[in-house]
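TL;DR need structure tokens for one chain.
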Amino acid sequence: MMPSKLLQLLAVLAFAVAMLLIENQIQKLEESRGRLERTIARHQLAEVEQRHSEDLGRESPPLAEKDDMVIIYNRVPKTASTSFTNIAYDLCGKNRFHVLHINTTKNNPVMSIQDQVRFVWNVTSWREMKPGFYHGHVAYLDFSKYRVQGKPMYINVVRDPIERLVSYYYFLRFGDNYRPGLRRRKQGDKKTFDECVSSGGSDCAPEKLWLQIPFFCGHHSECWDAGSRWALEQAKYNLVNEYLLVGVTEELEDFIMILEAALPRFFKGATELYRTGKKSHLRKTSEKKPPSKETIATLQQSDIWKMENEFYEFALEQFQFVRAHAVREKDGELYVLAQSFFYEKIYPKVS
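>> reply
TL;DR here they are.
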């Protein structure tokens, strides 16, 4: 008879092998599902492009101005983007607009030049999807250089760079309460963010902070050069000149309130939905532990953090400036200001 310890060891080994086989099958199923989703998306897009090509020679009546609108939310990961996007999904039926997720291969935020052309052409000419709200983890794309009519409006949300990185670090290991059963890329790694920084790990290196700047900078090569001063200035320029509104995660409700006031065609009812709806804070990273003061101090020594933080502070200042001219506080509540301009001395007089 085999010793009991040997039997226990064989049982443990058999269990480990079984778990590995199960995980391998789950991974294969996830990959198959991804391929199927991409194939379906390609077929849908091909059908749309075929319809467009058939309609080229036909005159189409112009869309009403309020319906000929496209918003692009090139969402930065771990900035409460899912919570905000779910509000758009909840409102699209009631407010009669379309919501489309831009699903890029391996979540690559940089599009190839051919995909840039396809995307710009689709967004501007896909009449059936207007008014449209596009969202996805993609870098800013300048539509003006493609010589198309009707540029979309960009919006976005940014977050304190260290808080965003900490959230992403634990998200890769423990997921969130949105899809708790989904296996994450770093699942099983129990190392805390503090331990990662103290040991010089790659997942918490200062270079991982470099994300919000390139998302706003765009598709230029230097945008993705960590620590580039040019990229920082370009990101600031785009934020001021190309984005209708950029909010901050820490003041998300105010961001939603201002959007509702500025774009009721899309966001009518958004503030109330955010305050009372069950999906207001739908996605929360699991097992997240706040970093220590020592860890924060270590990251703040890097030039990359200084640039990302400078961009965040710039965005925050701009948002607070917009908010100061859009809302007023009364009894602890914020209220949107009514229209404060009117027209007079209109000539020639109408008889």
